[in-house]
């Protein structure tokens, strides 16, 4: 770039700075063009004049007046040129030129020491040096714009890098805080669960003691009842023996009297007593006729009940043999003969339930309950049929009526708890299971289901205790071992969980869910090679499981097998295309393999599935920073920070 001499002079005039502590003023055109010599000497050496002023004995030396110049010798234009020349001669740039030409070399004897100057002079000197540096930079920036642009680009780049680094540092700090909060929360929940477990254990002990006391009391009452019954029975037997004794004596007396009479001589029998017209001979045919009439009329009065009972017995026989259709025919005949035969309705409903003809079975149970509304068996079985028909509210009502009639029926309590658990009314379900256990504490099914409800309530210690009691009663049930492993895993007791799961696998070796859970637990324990084997077996059994493919890929990432992990993530994406986690994990693997464009595309796909995923925004920002796309990186990292703040505010509304 070429600049004219006038431009250079103008710039130099604007940035000129005298090297002395005080710049010389530009002479006014209204006065003489140049100052007198006395004025210039006074201005040049103020220090000496201040030293001579206090001495009154010394006379002021005479000053030689410099010849004055006529103003007519210079035109205004010439005066202006002379003034600019004088000013430029006094700038640092002119001095540098003179030094370069070899002038004033004799005047440069030693560098000026700042320490030799007065404080004000040193301050002015430093300020003058700073101004000189700034003037130099300004001139360079004006003369060479490319260097200026490069300088500002470098400064901007450094600033952006610093912003990105601060954003990442802040995100890491937020992650650490969240981890600490999570650990504190888990510890707090664990302490609460332990306290609740202790309270529950104590309460169970108290309930057990109360039950034992009730049992002992009832046993004593039963013994007293048996004693009183035995005494009454004994008294009855004594009275019966006494009656038999008296009756035997009477019979003995009668026989003795008859024997005496038979010994007496018999008189002759008159022929008139054997005549056809005698009353004895006439009465015999009538009695036989009357007896035959009675025998023919009695069956006609009770024939219907006898026929219904016969059909009922035949139906029961067919039912025992498993011939349900024949049994239904016989029971139908029994009901046709006697519609008030409740037992026939009950048997018919039972058979219809076994044949999965639930609507007909429900009608039969309602007919039975119309006849016998106080029979708890009818209400209980009706509740079971309503469960099959998925009419759960009516089933609960039916179980409640059965419990009201027979409160100590553990099956009604158990089934009621199962329905309440299905409706996620876990507290009520737990109460029903506890009632069932009070009645029948040795039923492993109740203990198992009670453990499941406790696990849903996140009371894992109590759930484990319930599972252990059930396992003692039935150790060959693989579901018990599996659920115990899940509860132990929730408490992060992975070693114990793995042992329980292996027990389940011994009983059910090729179960898909068990193998998948085994892989997850081995991954938690960093036994990644063994976890791979478990996942491979699980995928062979069920290759269309999204969760298994994703977890398999996560385990491969731990082993740094990124290419294989990408294959598993793609398989998971095919099974579930809107999985943001799969897209994000695939992007991370691609970034590890330095396939940055594909990684960025994966992050964008993850954000299209879930736009409020802070982790994806963070990884995207880091990748863009690595690609030196700083504005977009700052935007992504800022988005991640804002989402995390919103999540924290949502979790803790008091902290905002």
Automatic annotation (TrEMBL):
Family matches, as InterPro entries: TPR-like_helical_dom_sf (IPR011990), TPR_rpt (IPR019734), Ycf3/AcsC/BcsC/TPR_MFPF (IPR051685)
SMART domains recorded: TPR (SM00028)
Membrane spanning stretches: 133-155
Polar residues compositional bias, start-end: 261-273, 286-295
TPR repeat ranges per the UniProt record: 308-341, 342-375, 376-409, 410-443, 444-477, 478-511, 512-545, 546-579, 580-613, 614-647
Positions with biased composition (Low complexity): 274-285
SUPFAM superfamilies noted in UniProt: TPR-like
Start and end residues of each stretch annotated as Disordered: 20-43, 256-295
Top-level taxon in the UniProt lineage: Bacteria
UniProtKB keywords: Coiled coil, Membrane, Repeat, TPR repeat, Transmembrane, Transmembrane helix
Pfam name, any one: TPR_8
Annotated coiled-coil segments of the chain: 450-504
Position of the signal peptide: none
Protein name per the record: Uncharacterized protein
Species of provenance: Planktothrix tepida PCC 9214
Organism lineage string: Bacteria, Bacillati, Cyanobacteriota, Cyanophyceae, Oscillatoriophycideae
């Amino acid at each position: 770039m070429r600049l004219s001499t006038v431009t250079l002079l103008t710039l130099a005039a604007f940035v000129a700075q005298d090297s002395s502590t005080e710049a010389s003023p530009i002479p006014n055109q209204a006065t003489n063009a140049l100052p007198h010599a006395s004025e210039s000497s006074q201005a040049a050496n103020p220090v000496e004049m201040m030293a001579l002023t206090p001495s009154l004995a010394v006379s002021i030396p005479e000053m030689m007046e410099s010849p004055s110049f006529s103003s007519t010798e210079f035109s205004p234009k010439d005066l202006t040129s002379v003034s600019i020349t004088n000013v430029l001669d006094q700038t640092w740039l002119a001095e540098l030129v003179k030094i370069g030409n070899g002038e004033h070399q004799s005047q440069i004897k030693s560098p000026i020491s700042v320490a030799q100057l007065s404080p004000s002079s040193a301050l002015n000197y430093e300020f003058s040096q700073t101004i000189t540096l700034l003037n130099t930079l300004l001139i360079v920036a004006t003369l060479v714009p490319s260097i200026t642009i490069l300088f500002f680009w470098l400064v901007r780049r450094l600033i952006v890098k610093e912003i990105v680094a601060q954003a990442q540092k802040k995100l890491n700090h937020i992650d650490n805080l969240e981890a600490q909060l999570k650990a504190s929360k888990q510890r707090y929940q664990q302490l609460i669960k332990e306290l609740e477990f202790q309270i529950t254990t104590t309460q169970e002990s108290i309930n057990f003691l109360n039950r034992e006391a009730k049992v002992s009391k009832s046993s004593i009452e039963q013994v007293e009842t048996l004693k009183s019954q035995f005494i009454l029975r004994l008294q009855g037997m004594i009275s019966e023996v006494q009656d038999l004794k008296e009756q035997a004596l009477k019979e003995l007396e009668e026989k003795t009297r008859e024997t005496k009479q038979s010994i007496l001589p018999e008189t002759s029998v008159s022929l008139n007593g054997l005549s056809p017209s005698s009353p004895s001979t006439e009465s015999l045919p009538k009695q036989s006729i009357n007896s035959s009439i009675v025998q023919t009329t009695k069956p006609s009065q009770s024939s219907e009940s006898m026929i219904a009972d016969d059909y009922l017995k035949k139906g029961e026989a067919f039912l025992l043999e498993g011939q349900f259709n024949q049994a239904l025919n016989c029971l139908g005949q029994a009901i046709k003969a006697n519609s008030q035969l409740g037992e026939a309705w009950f048997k018919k409903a039972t058979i219809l339930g076994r044949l999965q003809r639930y609507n007909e079975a429900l009608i039969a149970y309602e007919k039975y309950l119309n006849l016998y509304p106080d029979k708890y068996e009818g209400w209980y079985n009706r509740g079971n049929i309503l469960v099959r028909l998925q009419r759960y509210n009516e089933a609960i009502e039916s179980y409640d009526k059965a419990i009201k009639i027979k409160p100590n029926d553990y099956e009604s309590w158990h089934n009621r708890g199962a329905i309440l658990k299905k409706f996620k009314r876990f507290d009520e379900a737990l109460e029903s299971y506890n009632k069932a256990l009070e009645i029948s504490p040795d039923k492993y099914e109740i203990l198992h289901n009670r453990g499941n409800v406790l696990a849903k309530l996140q009371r894992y210690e109590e759930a484990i205790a319930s599972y252990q009691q059930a396992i003692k009663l039935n150790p060959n049930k693989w579901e018990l071992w599996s659920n115990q492993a899940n509860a132990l895993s929730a408490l992060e007791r992975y070693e114990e969980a793995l042992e329980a799961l292996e027990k389940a696998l011994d009983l059910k070796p090729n179960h898909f869910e068990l193998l998948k859970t085994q892989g997850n637990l081995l991954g938690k324990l960093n036994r990644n090679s063994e976890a791979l084997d478990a996942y491979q077996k699980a995928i062979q059994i069920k290759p269309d499981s999204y969760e298994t493919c994703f977890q398999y890929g996560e385990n491969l990432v731990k082993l740094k097998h990124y290419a294989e992990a990408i294959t598993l993530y793609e398989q998971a994406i095919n099974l579930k295309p809107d999985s943001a986690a799969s897209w994000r994990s695939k992007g991370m693997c691609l970034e590890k393999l330095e396939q940055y464009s594909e990684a960025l595309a994966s992050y964008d796909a993850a954000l299209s599935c879930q736009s409020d995923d802070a982790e994806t925004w963070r990884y995207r920002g880091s990748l863009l920073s690595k690609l030196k796309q700083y504005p977009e990186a700052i935007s992504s990292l800022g988005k991640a920070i804002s989402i995390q703040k919103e999540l924290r505010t949502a979790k803790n509304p008091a902290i905002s």
